[in-house]
């Protein structure tokens, strides 16, 4: 498959247009609706689709011009129904085709991050979640953030805390170090990492807008985590302590 993909990455514009038209017709046949296909060389958005005129307007990275029947079939199924297994196949294809994404200022492999905390190491947490829920298909880094901000005045003290974030351009998940404590259950830490991995997954499949939203597709993906409801209840019970720990970590 690599040889096939590399050939497509070097074809002249005329052949590229023929490949685009053939893929557009194939998607229309498989999806049963009109498809308008645009091929891109975007470094961060490999796939996006919007309903339009009874069909779909689809934007794909040129890597998909070299996809085999299994990937194209999975792509059509994912675009049409959001089928989870089909999405996993497409996700794995994107991961395996990263060599076709042009490196930019922040392209290439994700940067090195600090995974080892005072109590917990995020590397095995991420690896287990990736294998269990994403078929090993996520290509991003996961490490501890600094979590140190200016100490707020008491009268304006916020009762919210950002426990994790995903930088789509750098492909880095950062977890607030307030969770690096023995009192925090491992399954709750896993829920925060999994939440950000869901953002990473949807961004890779459907672009930046989908990767930021907590829409129905995101909620369905997030709900697959075995301790999802349990984690939500734990957060509600322990929010005040998390806020106190955060304020204690902040510079005075």
Ordered list of secondary-structure elements with their pairings:
Layout: H1 2-9, H2 13-31, E1 35-40, E2 47-52, E3 55-61, H3 69-81, H4 84-96, H5 122-133, E4 141-144, E5 164-167, E6 172-175, H6 186-206, H7 208-212, H8 216-222, H9 228-249
Parallel strand pairs: 1-3, 4-6
Antiparallel strand pairs: 2-3, 5-6
Helix pairs in contact: 2-3, 3-4, 5-6
Explain what the structure shows.
With 252 residues, the protein is of the alpha/beta class. It folds into two domains: 99 residues, no CATH class; 128 residues, Zincin-like. The protein contains nine helices and six strands; from the N terminus they run H-H-E-E-E-H-H-H-E-E-E-H-H-H-H. It has a three-stranded mixed sheet with strand order 1-3-2. A hairpin with a 4-residue loop joins strand 5 and strand 6. The chain is elongated and about 60 Å long. 33% of the residues are buried.
CATH fold assignment of the largest domain: Zincin-like
Q: Strand order, biggest sheet?
A: 1-3-2
CATH superfamily of the largest domain: Metalloproteases ("zincins"), catalytic domain
Task: Output mean pLDDT.
Answer: 81
CATH-scheme architecture of the largest domain: 2-Layer Sandwich
Computed over alpha carbons, the radius of gyration is 21 Å
Structural class: alpha/beta
Helix share bin:
40-55%
User: Which spans have pLDDT < 50 for at least 5 consecutive residues?
Assistant: 1-14, 103-107, 148-156
Sheet with the most strands? 3 strands, mixed
The CATH class label of the largest domain is Alpha Beta
Head-to-tail CA distance between termini? 56 Å
Strand content: 5-15%
> Helix and strand succession?
HHEEEHHHEEEHHHH
Number of strands: 6
Helical element count? Answer: 9
Identify the overall geometry: elongated
């Amino acid at each position: 498959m690599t040889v096939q993909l590399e050939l497509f990455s070097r074809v002249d514009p005329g052949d590229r247009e023929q490949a685009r038209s053939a893929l557009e017709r194939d998607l229309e046949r498989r999806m049963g609706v009109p498809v308008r296909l645009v091929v891109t060389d975007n470094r961060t958005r490999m796939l996006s689709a919007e309903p339009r005129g009874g069909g779909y307007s689809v934007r794909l990275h040129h890597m998909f011009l070299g996809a085999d029947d299994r990937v194209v079939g999975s792509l059509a199924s994912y675009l049409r129904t959001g089928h989870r297994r089909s999405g996993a196949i497409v996700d794995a294809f994107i991961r395996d085709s990263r060599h076709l994404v042009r490196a930019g200022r922040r392209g290439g492999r994700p940067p090195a991050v600090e995974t080892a905390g005072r109590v917990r190491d995020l590397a095995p947490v991420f690896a287990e979640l990736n294998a269990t829920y994403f078929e090993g298909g996520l290509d991003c880094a996961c490490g501890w953030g600094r979590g140190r901000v200016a100490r707020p005045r008491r009268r304006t003290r916020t009762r919210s805390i950002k426990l994790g974030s995903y930088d789509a351009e750098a492909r880095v998940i950062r977890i607030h170090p307030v969770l690096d404590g023995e009192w925090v259950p491992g399954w709750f830490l896993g829920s925060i990492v999994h939440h950000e991995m869901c953002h990473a997954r949807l961004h890779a499949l459907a672009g930046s807008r989908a990767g930021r939203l907590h829409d129905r597709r995101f909620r369905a993906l997030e709900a697959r985590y075995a301790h999802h409801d349990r984690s939500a209840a734990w957060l509600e019970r322990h929010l005040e302590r998390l806020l106190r720990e955060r304020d204690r970590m902040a510079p005075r």
